[in-house]
């Protein structure tokens, strides 16, 4: 199902410490297609450039923070870490208002940030996935469950 503005709540998605612009561009494109309200990065490690072929920046705002302390979670919004180990995605109930936080491609979400997540979910794949792919799967799962 394509996102419908009549759905209640909102969500954003972001990556902590991402090292490649391609992953941000891919996640941004997925976020635009799946109805995310915004995307963000914290502690970016890539040079400024774009890999976004759909010009998702025209439809989904991008926020950039130097540290997670700068990021302000909206009122009554649940921070959901996407990390292994976590609750399996197939049985996960998505919060009405959520921020999905993914970790860097090479280090994941640091323990001090995982402690700030109210929920932790994993894509049960047996092996680790590319960060943009994992994020895209979580966004699709949210929309698919909202449609049922």
Residue share in helix: 10-25%
**Rg from Cα:** 14 Å
Number of domain units: 1
Which spans of ≥5 residues are poorly predicted at pLDDT below 50?
A: 1-6
Number of helices: 3
Per CATH, which architecture? 3-Layer(aba) Sandwich
Lay out the secondary structure:
Elements: E1 10-16, H1 21-34, E2 38-42, E3 62-65, E4 78-88, E5 97-102, H2 111-114, E6 119-122, H3 131-147
Parallel strand pairs: 1-2, 1-5, 2-3, 4-5, 4-6
Helix pairs in contact: 1-3
Description:
- The protein is an alpha/beta fold.
- It has helices spanning 21-34, 111-114, 131-147, and strands at residues 10-16, 38-42, 62-65, 78-88, 97-102, 119-122.
- Strands 3-2-1-5-4-6 form a 6-stranded parallel sheet.
- Helix 1 (21-34) runs parallel beside helix 3.
- The termini are close together.
- Mean pLDDT is 85; it is low at 1-6.
């Amino acid at each position: 199902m394509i996102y419908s503005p009549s759905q209640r709540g909102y969500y954003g998605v972001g990556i902590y410490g991402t090292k490649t612009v391609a992953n941000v561009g891919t996640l941004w494109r997925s976020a635009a297609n799946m109805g995310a309200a915004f995307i963000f990065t914290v502690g970016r490690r890539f040079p400024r450039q774009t890999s976004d072929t759909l010009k998702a920046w025209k439809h989904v705002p991008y926020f950039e923070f130097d540290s997670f302390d700068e990021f302000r979670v909206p009122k009554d919004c649940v921070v959901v870490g996407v990390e292994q180990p976590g609750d399996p995605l197939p049985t996960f109930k998505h919060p009405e208002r959520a921020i999905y936080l993914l970790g860097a491609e090479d280090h994941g979400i640091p323990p001090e940030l995982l402690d700030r997540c109210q929920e932790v979910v994993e894509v049960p794949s047996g092996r680790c996935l590319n960060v943009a792919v994992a994020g895209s799967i979580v966004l699709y799962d949210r929309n698919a469950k909202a449609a049922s």
